[in-house]
Amino acid sequence: MADTYANYKELAAAEVKGVDYDIHFHRVIGSKTIIFTPHGGGIEPGTSELVKAVANGLYNWYEFEGVKPSKNSVLHITSIHFDEPLALKMVGAASNAMALHGYADPSVKHTQVGGLDDHLRGNVIRELKMEGFSAGIASGVLSGTNPNSITNRTSRGQGVQLEISALQRGAFFKNSDTSRANRVNTTDEFVKYVKALQKAMG
Fold it and tell me: Which residues share a beta bridge with 125?
């Protein structure tokens, strides 16, 4: 499905910050790593919660989150066009980046891992599998290999991108309920996934 907005400027002209969407971040002094999501909140539910849990005072983090009561998908700007200024600044200042995304498959628990950082991509896949998760190299439109993709706009020109299936993201929350109110109720599976990503970044 085509994006409603071609870039952040278009989105900001039509949507209200603090009402329809919001931007949150945290910087850790000395950190050259960023964990982030350009599609947080209600856009790709579960990604914001993962970002903060993985960063956990260790790494810089950033989220662009949809906070509409419904239809947050209109706030989706594809990664190669995502140009929100703070995100560009924070990713550009980092040498290591991990972007967390979701894709719509409701039938299989799986994570597709892409991006131009081959070393980190391999680490992520290995650590997820060691914790019992299904993971593999992303392909096609989810590959994250375009240099213009926000995750690859680091000081090294490379990052890693995780595309997490809807079924897998649902398993991170009690009763597989990804509504905003329930996303504070994380499961043991969420904890294991966070642990795997932290080990991969380590």
Answer: none
**Mean pLDDT, the chain, integer:** 97
Nearest CA to 73 out of 44, 51, 36, 102 is that of 44
Pairwise CA distance, residues 148 & 48, whole Å: 22
* SS3 state of residue 114: strand
What is d(CA 88, CA 23) in angstroms, rounded to the nearest whole number?
Answer: 13
Q: In Å, what is the CA distance from 137 to each residue of 87, 144, 162, 191?
A: 25, 10, 9, 22
The crossing angle, in degrees rounded to 10, of helices 188-201 and 118-130 is 150
Q: What are phi and psi of 15, to 5 degrees?
A: -115, 155
**Do residues 128 and 110 make contact, with C-beta atoms less than 8 angstroms apart?**
no
Stated as kind and residue range, the H or E segment containing 65 is strand 60-66
Which tokens in the block code for residue 48? 């914001």
Q: Centre a 10 Å sphere on the Cβ of residue 42 and count the other Cβ atoms it contains.
A: 22
Round the CA-based radius of gyration of the chain to a whole number and report it: 15
pLDDT of residue 60: 98
Buried b / exposed e over 163-179, threshold 16 CB at 10 Å, is bbbbebbbbbbeeeebe
